[in-house]
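Sat 14:20. Reprocessing the chain from the morning session after the first attempt stalled halfway. Input below, unchanged.
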Amino acid sequence: MLRQPLTREETKKAIDRKYPPAAPLVFHKWWGGGLWEKYGNDLNEISKDIPDDIFVVGYNGPGGYTSSTSNPSYRFGYRDDYHLLAKGGGHDSSNIIPTWDDLDKFAADFPDPYEPGTFDGTKSAIENADKAGDNRYRMGHWWGVFHEKFWGIRGMESLMVDYHENMKELKVLGRLMLDFHKGVVDRFAELKVDGIFTSDDLGHQTSSMMSPKTFHEFYYPLYKELCDHVHSYGMHFWLHSCGDNTPLMDDLIYAGVDVFHPVQRFTMDERATAQKYGNKISFLAGADVQILLPETTEEECRRGVREWIDMFYRPEGGLLLAAGNGILPDTPLENIRAMLEEVTLYGTEIYKDNIK
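Finished this time. Tokens:
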């Protein structure tokens, strides 16, 4: 092991900017689609001595068109004829509510966050960690909280229209989703996790998906209430959001987001973002998986990772390290190892003055 995993208290020091001994690592071993098929067990071999500082645990979330459990209602869908409506394509072309005329039917069949059995695996994993004496920071995790869920329910094209023409209906949907996720937070809190990590891809390559005005009117109150609920349990709120979130950063911070991931290279100005907001929010900074990892030599990769870490470094903390997204299959194995070594070793070296 290049270094021992950090304790939960040491990770909390990093998040709370209280002079940690190292930058915590999580989602740094993010094997993207096709990577395992290409390298297989070689990925385990090159990463077996790299620490995982955070214990991540999920739960069995609701399905979309169909349930993820034996209960047919544990889904966001409410109809039995989706096979006749489905257009095919990706998540952004879903049409779980093809017409707002069915909003009442949709709401009446909304999934229950207290669905029996959906946290059985979560509870078992945490009990096993307790028995093993695992003292790492514990994170409750799921993908998709608001915007991502809404485009999966309405489809991206319809959602973009809804922001301008159907805000009243969207606010009903927002309340349903907020209450659902508050229930999920309650269940994670019962298991004594330290933080909640979810996602909302709010940006595209050059700006946010919606105007700052729309975000402030619609999303800010949802985030504020959810963050307040998470904080009421003494937990941190972590958010992953791809794309350019620059126009939304102030609102996300005021709403209570504690840790933001990844500050995506080529969409956000990493240095300017770190300088402007580094004393207000912590960053789970994400190493660039689009160019730095797949298209450089090993030495260039190492140098690039160090330069990127330096952009976010503050002696008091506020820096955690990850991959920016799933590592692509055209990434050389030696560059994956180089990144993992640098986030571990250099991410510890820069905090050497904090070690008493």
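The CA atoms of residues 101 and 169 lie 10 Å apart.
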